[in-house]
Specification:
Elements: H1 2-33, E1 42-47, H2 61-68, E2 70-77, H3 84-91, H4 97-100, E3 106-109, E4 114-117, H5 126-129, H6 135-141, E5 146-149, E6 165-166, H7 175-187, E7 194-199, H8 203-209, H9 216-236, E8 244-248, E9 254-255, E10 261-263, E11 273-277, E12 281-286, H10 291-299, E13 305-309, E14 328-332, E15 337-339, E16 349-350, E17 364-367, E18 375-381, H11 385-393, H12 421-469
Parallel strand pairs: 1-7, 1-8, 2-18, 5-6, 5-7, 10-15
Antiparallel strand pairs: 2-17, 3-4, 8-17, 9-16, 11-12, 12-14, 13-14
Helix pairs in contact: 1-12, 7-9
Bound molecules: zinc ion.
GO molecular function, one term: hydrolase activity
Membrane topology: Single-pass membrane protein
Keywords: Glycoprotein, Hydrolase, Membrane, Metal-binding, Signal, Transmembrane, Transmembrane helix, Zinc
Length: 470
């Protein structure tokens, strides 16, 4: 009896080990297959000057299709000043303008004694951008690839980085060509995980026509068709429903009138100051020793213009602590324009006003596997877009003025893992590899048990013989 008992012990231990190995494997398999952390691919799209309520002005079936399939945030508070460059840089840094340093479309740096001008396309001086580090720099430092189609700042070397792929800014490149490049980058052998797409409209026509002009209808319809084109191309490339797409803008637009002009020449001698950034948030650089004189003549000049010395700018605007913010800021009320005099050119639409005004707020939609479907959220801040993007990309957010917690409710409860062809290959590889390991262990254990049993039987026979002789 003894040898039989002793023979069962190694057999049980071996079988237990085998079952344990199998159980651990089965427990670990799902997590091994679940794409490690929540990394996904993201496309960030900006239609410049697309006001939040344009989708209700005319039929916009493609925007509504995206809303039904994703999340719509009704009011996004962008940053002051509500201009193009400051807000595009906020979306990719999570910082207020005073912190990321792109404080206006037109800037003067008194330390560098250098200027920056969107109007003159003089925007490539890295030093204006390097107070912050945009998301593509972090993305690439963490080993990923970025592709940018005309997004402001993406053709500038910032902290030694360009995006992995980018298009030098050229307004004449069509929307379709920009989309084609992005899809190439998302589907190449070494794909990007993050794409940025910028389109100049409906901002340009909003300035020319004014947002309340009925002729804006066809302009908005055209943007809707462009969104439809983007979605259909993503579907053709099998990226729709796989990548996460955020469709937003930098600011809205207010209707102007030739009846609502504030003429600086009526109040102060033009020889005493320079205008750095233009209406409706006018950055004024007084000549040396003329600060008080210029300020005092303008301070109560017009009931629809608020004039601040830099240190008086309200904290809620987060627009004070930067050397590129000029000594005097004059801000027009909604719908008013600040000019030298009436002979200046006139436009029917503008933006740049207080970011508390809904007319300054952009559209925001988010569609893709990470987001809830047919969901709405009332409010968010544009600074929250950056931590949201970092979460989606699975990269570390740098210190910022946004909050991921403030927007995590737009995410689906559990982010579905969408497998690409590569992932399927990985899964099959892991499964087959694991299967072979188990078969090997089973064969080895079986062989080990038989060897042990045979050895023990021989030993028992040898040990038993003397006893029998007794
Ligand atoms: Zn504009």
């Amino acid at each position: 009896m003894l040898p039989q008992k002793r023979g069962r012990i190694p057999s049980r231990i071996a079988m237990n080990c085998c079952w344990k190995v199998l159980a651990i494997f089965l427990l670990l398999l799902p997590s091994a297959l679940s794409l490690q952390p929540a990394q996904s691919r993201v496309l960030l799209v900006s239609f410049d000057g697309f006001r939040w309520d344009y989708i209700y002005k005319v039929s916009t079936p493609n925007f509504h299709y995206a809303m039904e399939n994703g999340v719509h945030v009704k009011q996004v508070t962008n940053v002051f000043i509500t201009k193009t460059y400051p807000n595009h840089y906020t979306m990719v840094t999570g910082l207020y303008a005073e912190s990321h340093g792109i404080v206006a479309n037109e800037m003067y740096d008194p330390i560098l004694n250098e200027t920056f001008s969107l109007n003159k396309m003089d925007t490539h001086n890295s030093r204006f951008w390097e107070e912050a580090s945009p998301i593509w720099v972090t993305n690439q430092r963490e080993g990923h690839k970025t592709g940018a189609a005309m997004w402001p700042g993406t053709d500038v070397k910032i902290h030694g980085f360009f995006p992995t792929h980018y298009m030098p800014y050229n307004e004449s490149v069509s929307f379709e060509d920009r989309v084609a490049r992005l899809i190439d980058w998302f589907t190449s052998e070494e794909p990007i995980n993050f794409g940025l797409l910028y389109w100049e409209q409906p901002d340009e026509m909003g300035h020319i026509l004014g947002p309340e002009n009925p002729l804006m209808g066809p302009i908005i319809s055209d943007i809707d068709q462009k969104l439809g084109y983007l979605m259909s191309e993503l579907k053709k490339a099998k990226l729709w429903g796989v990548i996460n797409v955020i469709i937003t803008s930098d600011h809205g637009m207010s209707q102007l009138s030739s009846e609502r002009l504030i003429e600086l020449d009526q109040y102060v001698n033009r020889e005493l100051y320079k205008v750095i950034e233009h209406s409706p948030a006018v950055a004024i650089l007084p000549n040396e020793g003329k600060l008080d004189e210029v300020y005092e003549t303008l301070a109560n000049a017009h009931p629809n213009m608020t004039v601040y010395k830099k240190e008086q700018i309200p904290d809620r605007l987060h627009y004070k602590h930067n050397r590129k913010i000029q000594p005097i800021l004059a801000v027009a009320d909604k719908g008013w324009e600040i000019v030298y005099n009436k002979s200046d050119g006139f436009q029917f639409g503008n933006h740049g006003y207080d970011n508390i005004l809904p007319e300054m707020h952009p559209i925001f939609l988010a569609v893709g596997p990470a987001f809830r479907k047919n969901a709405t959220k009332e409010v968010m801040n544009a600074t929250d877009i950056y931590p949201l993007l970092c979460h989606l990309l699975g990269i570390n957010a740098l210190p910022n003025n946004g909050s991921f917690n403030a927007v995590k409710d737009i995410l689906a409860e559990e982010v579905p893992v969408v497998f690409g062809a590569d992932t399927y290959a990985t899964i099959v590889g892991v499964f087959l590899g694991s299967f072979l390991v188990i078969v090997f262990i089973a064969v080895f254990v079986k062989h080990f048990i038989f060897t042990q049993l045979n050895t023990m039987q021989v030993q028992h026979t040898e040990a038993a013989q003397p006893l029998l002789q007794d």
